[in-house]
Amino acid sequence: MVIRKLTTPLIIYVPGLLPKPNPAAHRDALARCLLASVRRFDEDVAGQIAASKDNFQIVPWTFDFYGRHRDAMLDAAAIDKLLMKQVASEDDVAVASSWKRRLSLWIYRLGDLLPFLIPHLASERMEVHLRDLLRYVNNERGIAERIRYKLKTPLRQAAAAGRPVCLIGHSMGSVIAWDALWQMSHRDNDTAEVDLLLTMGSPLGQSYIQKRLKGADHAGAARFPSNVRQWKNLSAVGDLTAIDPYLVSDFGEMREHGVLQSLEDERIFTWFRLDGVLNVHSEYGYLAHEATARIVCDWWRSLS
């Protein structure tokens, strides 16, 4: 006997920093990458996700933050090439593992441990990200609260409809997800829950970030969101945002407090290239990876 889901599961995706394409184009590009990987893993699950655009939603916060969209055509050819491959090539692995990349990671980690060195170590890329992070942390003109509200709304709607949620946070999107979930469980008295939190290329392992998370000034279980059942974390080798790719060492305490059932880290090699340059941090590369497909499929099937 086949037991049918009473309600269709929902995947909610929160992107990271930098301008993104307009929401419709961005959502379609992300869904294309996710469905390509899921289809290779489980055709039936891919069909169920693709059956309605409502099954995969994005939180389009970057236009409010930057006041502009990225031209979707800038990424179109690179996405086509990404989806023509199923695994990272030997060259992709070599670049991601190169001594230059390892040196950059070491410098970033040093800056994370000794923040007073950041002005001397920061690259132009790091300076831009720090500027944007501080704008979010300081909630300039209420921007951070507006961004979190954009995530809380679909979470509340899913709770009202009884839909199980897989919340995917890429890069800064994982910080936004954490803060929104913490507020919902400790400040807003929400009943909304996340069945699976999937973080990708997350900076949550950075001390600099952890000191600025919602709940950081609390002790014990109050430090953590209490509305997540399981948490999976993917980090690409060479990802300069996920400089500490092992979140179990930082947040494993959540299991001891009984606010989380499981937390697992996994390292992967991604292969997205824009204009021929490998970008292991790309959201498209993470979504097109077999590890993402496996996690999403296992979760989706567990609800049937």
Notes on the structure:
The chain is built from 15 helices and eight strands. It has 304 residues and is an alpha/beta fold. The strands form two sheets. A six-stranded parallel sheet has the order 2-1-3-4-5-6, sandwiched between helices. Strands 7-8 form a two-stranded antiparallel sheet. A hairpin with a 2-residue loop joins strand 7 and strand 8. Helix 1 (23-41) packs across helix 15 and helix 9 packs across helix 10 (172-186). It is globular, with a radius of gyration of 19 Å.
Q: What distinguishing features does this structure have?
A:
disordered N terminus, two-stranded antiparallel ribbon, 6-stranded parallel beta sheet, alpha/beta, 304 residues
Number of helices: 15
Percent range of helical residues: 40-55%
**How many structural domains does the protein architecture include?**
1
Main sheet record: 6 strands, parallel
Low-confidence stretches: 1-5
